[in-house]
Amino acid sequence: MDTRPRSPTWARRLSYVQLDALSRAFAAWLQKKSGLVPGDRIALMMPNILQYPIALFGALRAGMGSSTPTPSTPAANSSIS
């Protein structure tokens, strides 16, 4: 029986220290390079991978809200405004 992880991401672990550092770096990028401002909302459209919590906490640190649309979300209701 093959017991290897199905995805390289599933084999990785992320410590709280790493999550803190990476989410701070993403927050800094959002604030300084993205053209977004605190209060803006961003859509996080990705599968359940390690980058998701980094992006979510980074957005929150930058003072932004986030939405996580799913493939089942009707197009008319998935706009971020």
Highest CATH level, the class of one domain: Alpha Beta
| Mean pLDDT, all residues | 81
Q: Please report the number of helical segments.
A: 2
Strand order, main sheet: write it out.
1-2
- Which fold name fills CATH's third level, the topology of one domain? Rossmann fold
Residue fraction in strands: 5-15%
Order of helices and strands: HEHE
Broad structural category: mainly alpha
Number of strands: 2
Helical fraction: 25-40%
Structure in words:
There is one protein chain. The chain is mainly α and 81 residues long. It contains two helices and two strands. Helix 2 (51-61) links the parallel strand 1 (41-43) and strand 2 (65-67). The protein has a domain at 13-67: Rossmann fold. 11% of the residues are buried. A two-stranded parallel sheet has the order 1-2. Helix content is 35%, strand content 7%.
SSE blueprint:
Elements: H1 16-32, E1 41-43, H2 51-61, E2 65-67
Parallel strand pairs: 1-2
Task: Please provide a brief summary of the model.
With 81 residues, the protein is mainly alpha-helical. It has 2 helices and 2 strands. The protein has a two-stranded parallel ribbon with strand order 1-2.
